[in-house]
């Protein structure tokens, strides 16, 4: 890549082409990285949850957040905050695993707070109350402790 020009996708939009690791950190050009999630994929809620859970279990919460972001942007208006909250939980786990404990805790709490209106029998079988509790507990832990292992801390999305 020419250092004075931005990477562009096939449509000419700015898009960083640097490879990334499993936590979404940029790697030097030419280094093998983790395949990125395609953007703008419209999935059913079940497909979204299945793919995000697979990525979380693999220790790739950054990539899971991209799946949730697609659902947030393409889903029905009344569910956008749910998907946005789940994306924030994934980003909070990403930052916590990268060692950014303050940012990780903040995003975990913000994402958990976004889920509050969806407590009770969670839409699409999502374990909303369990995720809220998980986010609060992990936020407390990462603020006062070491970096966490993203795969070991992966939440269960469904009850």
Largest sheet: none
Count of beta strands: 0
Measured as a percent range, the helix fraction is 40-55%
Mean pLDDT: 90
Give the helix/strand class: mainly alpha
Name the poorly predicted regions. Answer: none
Instruction: Give me the Rg, rounded.
Output: 16 Å
Total count of helical runs of at least 4 residues: 5
Tell me the β content.
under 5%
Sequence of secondary-structure elements: HHHHH
Principal-axis shape: globular
Oligomer: single chain
Note the gap between the termini.
46 Å
Please tell me about this protein's structure.
This protein has helices at 45-57, 61-74, 80-98, 101-115, 128-144. With 159 residues, the protein is an all-alpha fold. It is 49% helix and 0% strand.
Question: Topology, pairings included?
Answer:
Elements: H1 45-57, H2 61-74, H3 80-98, H4 101-115, H5 128-144
Please outline what is shown here.
This protein is mainly alpha-helical and 159 residues long. Helices cover 49% and strands 0% of the residues. Helix 1 (45-57) runs antiparallel to helix 2 and helix 3 packs antiparallel against helix 4.
Question: Which properties best describe this structure?
Answer:
globular, 49% helix, 159 residues, mainly alpha
């Amino acid at each position: 890549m020419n250092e004075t020009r931005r990477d562009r996708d096939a449509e000419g939009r700015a898009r960083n082409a640097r490879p990334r690791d499993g936590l979404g950190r940029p790697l030097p050009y030419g280094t093998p990285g983790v395949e990125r999630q395609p953007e703008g994929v419209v999935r059913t809620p079940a497909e979204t949850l299945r793919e995000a859970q697979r990525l979380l279990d693999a220790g790739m919460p950054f990539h899971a957040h991209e799946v949730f972001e697609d659902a947030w942007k393409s889903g029905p208006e009344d569910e956008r905050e749910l998907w946005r909250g789940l994306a924030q939980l994934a980003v909070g786990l990403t930052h916590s695993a990268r060692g950014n404990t303050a940012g990780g805790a903040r995003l975990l709490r913000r994402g958990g707070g976004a889920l509050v209106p969806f407590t009770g029998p969670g839409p699409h079988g999502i374990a909303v109350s369990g995720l809220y509790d998980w986010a609060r507990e992990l936020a407390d832990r990462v603020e006062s402790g070491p970096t966490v292992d993203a795969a070991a801390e992966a939440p269960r999305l469904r009850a």
